[in-house]
Amino acid sequence: MRRARRERSLLASRPPLYWKLAKGKLTVWVAISALPGYLLAVPGAIDPCVFAALGVGTLLTSASAQSMNQIYEIPRDALMARTAARPLPSGRISTTEAAGFALATSSLGLGILTFGANPATAAIAGMTIVTYVCAYTPMKVLTPYNTHVGAISGSLPTLLGFYAALGTSLVTSPWGGHALWLFTMQTLWQMPHFYALAWIFRADYLKGGYNMFPLTDVTGLKTAAMSRPYLVAMCAMPWAASALGLASWMLPIGAAIPSALWWQSLRRFEQNPSIPTCRRFFLGSLTYLLATLALFTVYARAEQPIDPLAKSTDADEGQETASRTLEPAWRLRISKMFSELCPHETIQTYVLGALKFSCPFGGTKGSA
After folding, report:
1. CA 133 distance to own-chain centroid
2. Cα(258)–Cα(272) distance, rounded to whole angstroms?
């Protein structure tokens, strides 16, 4: 009886340990970053099976990468207060068990992405694991530029959704520029995000023997100065997306709010460098990323050239139309439901009309 209770207790304790081994919160964020590409580029209606495979497969492959990372860093994690209680350095999970978990999650995740989406999606996920474990992880003790490599590895999941929707045809599709924009945005975002984290835990990272730029910054002013150019670039990116025709002009308008909030948290950190102000700057980065992913998903646009043999004449202007604006199928359905309630469609101001702003729930009229 007691043995049975112990076994049940042991089984009940495993899921939380595996969650920590997989760095569950980080893994969820990785999965979220993979979804916008699919929602944008899927040529027809959303396939719930493919969408589920994308989410589950990304979760599993990310869990595998995080587990391998922790296996590699057991000695260093044991030296740091913030990581000493993790399952591996604390001895609650053995290295063999962790390796089995990493192998199982990678195999299952890559299999789900291969057969639930397509092989190209699985290939990108595999590349993410390899660059994270084989390049970024060992570089963390060799050079402070490890963050740059980690940022690239951490941005590869943004491509998964596009590949799940389009496969290898993404490169030549109208959505290729959007994939590049999302990848670039998340790469830039990761630099101040990780700089803030490294500065907050700089004492621990030094104990672990890591090599990162913020670790020698006693005052925090250098960390803030290093972060500033990235925030400037990210404030400009929504405007660039609209200017390049990747999104409607509502994207930079909507992105102004999360950008201003994150910028304000940086200013507070600059004026009063401390753990609390840096932590708010770090948390502000998460809010910014989530908001930007959502806004880009809602406001992104693409144009597809029309076959010359199938060109149609515009009834209003009497000119031939060389391209047509693509709308994700899911957004077209929502447009039909909410177009009559859309204030942007019923209240046409001079500014909105001049800049051709458009609302995602207002049909295609005025799309930029």
Report:
1. 18
2. 21
Which residues does residue 247 pair with via DSSP β-bridges, in sequence order?
300
Residues 185, 157 contacting (CB under 8 angstroms): no
Please report which helix (H) or strand (E) contains residue 47, including its range: none
φ, ψ of residue 322 to 5 degrees: the values are: -90, -15
Instruction: Name the residue among 111, 114, 188 with its Cα closest to residue 148.
Output: 188
CA atoms within 13 A on the CB side of 115: 5
Calculate the alpha carbon distances from 300 to 72, 97, 123, 136, 331 in Å. Answer: 40, 44, 26, 31, 11
85's enclosing H/E stretch is none
- Burial class of 81 by CB neighbour count within 10 A (0 to 12, 13 to 18, 19+): exposed
Beta bridge partners of 313: 320
pLDDT digits (tens, 9 = 90+) for 232-273: 999 999 999 999 999 999 999 999 999 999 999 999 999 999
Transcribe 272-319 into DSSP letters: S-SHHHHHHHHHHHHHHHHHHHHHHHHHB-EEEEPPGGG--B-TTT--
For 345, the token pair is: 């469609």
Task: List C-alpha distances in Å: 167 to 163, 173, 338.
Answer: 4, 10, 31
Helix/strand/coil for 326 = strand
Closest residue by Cα to residue 242 from 185, 179, 299 = 299
CA atoms within 13 A on the CB side of 321: 14
Distance from the Cα of residue 260 to its chain's centroid: 20
Asked if 113 and 121 count as a contact pair (C-beta separation under 8 A), the reply is yes
Cα Rg, the chain, nearest whole Å: 23
What are the backbone dihedrals phi and psi of residue 222, each rounded to the nearest 5 degrees, phi first? Answer: -65, -40
Write down the residue that tokens 């053995």 correspond to.
94
pLDDT tens, position by position, 268-292: 999 999 999 999 999 999 999 999 9
Q: Give the separation between CA 36 and CA 44, rounded to whole angstroms.
A: 15
How many residues in total does the chain contain? Answer: 368
